[in-house]
């Protein structure tokens, strides 16, 4: 059975009503948000789901949008925010499927992460403050990692000065 049939079967069993959009994929709606499942016929292990066209980019808002995209992509694991087709912001989740994946749990996770990503993007683009939802140990790890990376960069610069 092909990935598309399996994913659509899971989405239907989860209560969604996916609508075929030809070669572009399948759309489904959850809590008034439209999602797009985009199968890749050439790679059965590649899973991509997106919230398309969450915000329109124009010359007046481009800098604010880029900042919001950057911050959103950094704050949320697994999802990215990017500009697609004709200047629209999309939230996208990509995953390499393995035989160990529980597809229903994965789909629930993807939908939740994308919803969170879009929410954070909207708050950021509107200039609202985002409370860092990561737990304290994750923040400490990130801070320690950043400190270690800075030390490595400093050492590289020192070694380059002596060479």
Biggest sheet, in brief? 6 strands, antiparallel
Radius of gyration, in angstroms, nearest whole number? 19 Å
Uncertain regions: pLDDT < 50 for 5+ in a row? Answer: none
Percent range for β-strand residues: 15-25%
Major beta sheet, strand line-up: 1-2-3-4-6-5
Please give the number of β-strands: 6
Q: What is the domain tally? A: 2
Characterization of the model:
This protein is of the alpha+beta class. It is about 45% helix and about 25% strand. It is built from 4 helices and 6 strands, in the order αββββαββαα. The protein has helices at about 5-15, 60-75, 105-125, 135-160; strands spanning about 20, 25-30, 35, 45-55, 80-85, 90-95. It has a 6-stranded antiparallel β-sheet. Strand 1 and strand 2 form a beta hairpin. About 20% of the residues are buried. The mean pLDDT is about 85.
Could you write a compact summary of the structure shown?
The mean pLDDT is 86. Helix content is 46%, strand content 23%. With 163 residues, it is α+β, with helices and mostly antiparallel strands.
Question: What's the helix and strand layout?
Answer:
Elements lengths: L2 H11 L5 E2 L5 E5 L2 E5 L8 E11 L5 H14 L3 E6 L3 E9 L6 H23 L10 H27 L1
Helix pairs in contact: 2-3
Features:
single chain, alpha+beta, Yope Regulator, Chain: A, 2 domains, 4 helices
